[in-house]
Amino acid sequence: MKPGADDGRIGLRANLRHIGALVRRCALQIKQDPESMMDALLMPIVFTLLFVYVFGGAIGGGGGGASRDQYVQYLIPGMMGMMSMSIAMAVGTGINEDFRKGVMDRFRSMPIARSSVLIAKSLVEVGRMLVAIVVLLAVGLLCGFDLNGHWLGMLGAVGLTALFGASLLWIFILVGLSMETAQAVQGISFLVLMPLQFGSSVFVSTDTMPGWLEAFTKVNPLTHVADSARGLMLGQGAVAGPVMWTVIWAVGLTVVTAPFAIAKFRKKV
User: Fold this and answer.
1) Which residue ranges run through the membrane (predicted)?
2) What is the DSSP letter of 144?
3) Structure pTM?
4) Which of 22, 40, 147, 240 could form a disulfide with 132 if both were Cys (CB 3.0 to 4.6 A apart)?
């Protein structure tokens, strides 16, 4: 980016062109390096098979096949939020490596809005989230998951999960810009991910947890995402409350963290 280039001097139409060009660039990079999609393609398969066939019988109540089938119905909608969070983590590592490898140096000489680089990265990562969710649902159907005709609810759950995942991207972008190495980014990200994923209703009902942990799960945004997906896809449980809280979390995280991430990016470039 040219020294002194400012987003305010670039019109909306030009900014959109820049974002489109950067999205195409990222898509071409994925095409040239298919291994960068391995996490989005393999993670849903591995986690679904692991929890359904290794833990499903025990977690589902020890009733063998019947309990496993019931657990599949509970697990798959909940794991959608987990997939969005896990994919979002990768953007922090990626942007940290871009700075380390000098990729961002190339953008300094271009008269483009600084925010367009981050927005383009976010759009590509949302696309990867959607791929991971589609793979998850496909594997879930093969394992016995049944939508019972709630196809519109499934689309709503996918959109809501993508919205929440997009808000998480800004957190991990900020982490990636703040840490010195990709290893440090991964370490911090896992410290955030693990309590949120396992201290939620993604894998088991929160009623089975100790009181202090159940209190944490009730304010955990991932619990709201999981409960929203179950309500929309299965028609079970409350829907309005979890959906409302998911939207509030998504908007709140974006409003709070996106300006800091963009300001940090501007400072570094």
Assistant:
1) 40-59, 71-95, 116-139, 151-177, 184-204, 243-263
2) T
3) 0.85
4) 40
